Phosphoesterase (Haloprofundus marisrubri), 488 residues
Amino acid sequence: MVRWLLLGCGPVGHAMLELLAERPGRVQVVTDDPERVTSLREEGVRATHSDPTDPEMYPAAADVVLVVGEDAKRNLAAVESAREQYPNAQVTAYAGVEADPEFVERLDEAADRVIDATGVLTDYVVEMVDREPARRLRRLLSVLRELEGPLAVVTHDNPDPDAIASAIALCRIAETVGVDADACYFGEISHQENRALVNLLDLQLRNLESTDDLEPYAGIALVDHSRPGVNDGLDPETFVDIVIDHHPPRAPVEARFVDLRSEVGATSTLLADYLERLGRDLDRTVATALLYGIRVDTKDFTREVSKTDFEATAYLLERVDVSVLERVETPSMSADVFETIARAIRNRESRGTALASCVGKINDRDALAQAAERLLDMEGVKVSLVYGYKDGTVYVSGRARGADIDLGETLRDALGQIGSAGGHADMAGAQLPLGILEEVGDDSTESLTEVVRGIVSGRFFETLGTAPVPGVGDADELTLEFPLDEQT
């Protein structure tokens, strides 16, 4: 049950009370207007005759504080008192009548939300505060405020645009409640478009070399992945404060605040939603990064896109730097990427409409995803898997289009027992430790490659329920049908 506290009760407050009377929750009013107190008590509303800026007269607890007096100066004092009394509550303030711009600016710094129009305030509180999205935002802000030091927002290893943008956005949200935050990652940013995004927007990210680098931080947040030690350099036992992700988890996720919504196409969508509900001015840097993150993860709104993704895009569009987006999308492609794509095409193995390709030793793991996308463009191909190894790990990237399978679940079933694997129905990946296979050594690269190919392709095709089909060649077309009992 939501505990509402109204401080001051002019025309705006009275309008709010009429609407709140129809909704569940406990309402308390503190106002210095004695006639209003009498009237409210006759209507059955808990009302206290006192100075709205005096915290001694406030109730013991409140979830949402609405400062709705007519004078901006007094409203500012009430906001500051409420913030000190209820550090975890959501505080929304009305700027008052003909407010001085100086007080409006100070109100914006002190409150979670400031509205200077009566109608907008009413619509905002009714639509936004008393629903699940608003409750999520309140819980997130509450966890942030309770931190006793800076926050490390950790992406998955070698972050993509969605992870990068989400980390930067969460840092901005933390700053609105006075918490310093850094966007952090293990590994490297090697994909040419990802590097262009970081460089052109001048994004500040911290490259972590070991878990010792996290000692100065009082809190840990994970974005675009949900479990420490899985696709990041954290210890699996790391205590996590915040998790925000759009990937369906395979195992339980533990954190003080968890927002997992697999129905949306990108984690950037969730962060854009938070920022819109906060009502703060969104700078072009964050807006541009978030929009690019959504576009990449939804493949320009053609893959696992939802209504929420479109709504977030509409919010961001007016605020992005279009010229930067154009430059990010047309970076030069490195020779390593071209070579990986060429090897993927040359080494492909087909089983009906599915194919897999081992490219051997790699320098740039991001090239695997680009190769998988290219192979999916081949005629008759519905599922593509490209994999290679680097630094003692086999990296796997898969794509699907129009196939009657869930690729994320397929890779979990095929490779989850020997590594970490998962993702979405049409975009997934895996990481497998080479272990004893690595001891084959550089002098026997061909043998190591063959062993890796046998394990990954073998398990993949077996899980798909396919086998080599006589007469299927490069020029042949075959519609692959997966048995019902083999679908995942």
Observations:
- The chain has three domains: 3-130, 141-328, 335-464.
